[in-house]
Amino acid sequence: MPNTTSTDLDEAGSTAAYRTGVAAKLAGLPVETLRVWERRYQLSSPARSARGQRLYSAEQVRRLSLLKQLADQGHAIGTLASLPLEQLQAMLGAQPSRAGPPLRAVAVGATLAPRLLAGGVAQDGSTGFMAGPDVHVVGACARLEDAGSLPRHADVLIVEISELDVDALAPIQRARDATESGAVVVLYRFCASTTIRTLRAQGCLVARIPAQLNELAPLCRSAVVGANLGALAPASAIEFDEEALAKIMAMRNPITCECPRHLAELLMMVGSFERFSSQCASRDEADAQLHLALQQAAGQARGILENAMARLLHTEGMWPLAG
Length: 323
Description:
Strand order of the largest sheet: 5-6-4-7-9-11
Shape: flat
Number of strands: 11
Oligomer: single chain
Low-confidence stretches: 1-16, 94-99, 120-127, 229-234
């Protein structure tokens, strides 16, 4: 359950549950932006933990989310900051409650499962645990071998393995198949980078075990978003490597058309960005899903440009390339 006390109340009297980083993720804000907004516009009065950490309630997070969406639409944050929640909702055409059902999650882990099962009854009266305002954990077990007993067709499977190694790769995949989950979050304390890269290549979101259970919510949502992105058309195989592109740039076109050279330059840049994003996704856990999305988008763009290049070279009589 969230680590709160009866004194952790916001200005509206709601129990505060989310630390600054979690609140920012839930609202879709960079932490730095939230801090600047708080400093400049005194957006809210979050409670403080015994250690002095800011703690935000679900209603405060909801308000921050509305502010972010309205700011993205071009509204000045300085004007929005003083408006009540109801007016922000009216401006966005939003409803007071979150649209749609919460994500359904199942979990596996020797320490994670008991913590989740201790959550008791969820807000809708069903057995389970609300890991944040929109993630409902509907089943949990201690071992990967028992994953077949969990409810099927969950939106996300959460797997906790403290010391994660390559021996867990096959059991994780079997648990994913058994639960028929749409996305997978793998949590660890210690793990080799090669194992992390392998899991990410298999479409899993991999992150260190969070300190509080309510920090699972943004991880689950990111995993589901990543799974949806993975369903897009995959990047095509590379048809023009840098050596081939360099040849195109150096070739003399009999009709002096500059398009092959310009397109080759574009392909070099897009391909380089695709590789760069892949490296970022492997080493930056906080932004792994973002960089995975960028890598996939760059790969799809490269495929489109390569098709255009092949057509152009055929049309201009420059195909096949000289050896």
